[in-house]
Amino acid sequence: MRIIVRGLSISRSCVTDDIYIEVVNISQNLGLNIRTRRKELAISQEELARRCNIDRSYMGQIERGTANPSLAVIDAIAHSLVVSTSELLREYHAITMKPPRKKRK
User: Which residue range forms the structural domain that includes residue 46?
Assistant: First the structure.
């Protein structure tokens, strides 16, 4: 289930039999899509940051979903990764065959 609150999606987990699906928030979507595309092109995080004219640590924050980049920065990243901005913002679903383990207390 996905809930939208003031433009941000709140993640909820859904477990069905033996497939675990987790929908992540919009900042995490962006970061996962950037990281996936960057790795497809075999570009380092430092190199991508240089191409976008932003700091490497800021690029790391974007990929982790802890930063909220401006549209200009997202557009620069998309241009550097040779994809459309909308492709970077598409929804990302992490799907695995087993649900994550419960944390020990």
Answer: 3-96
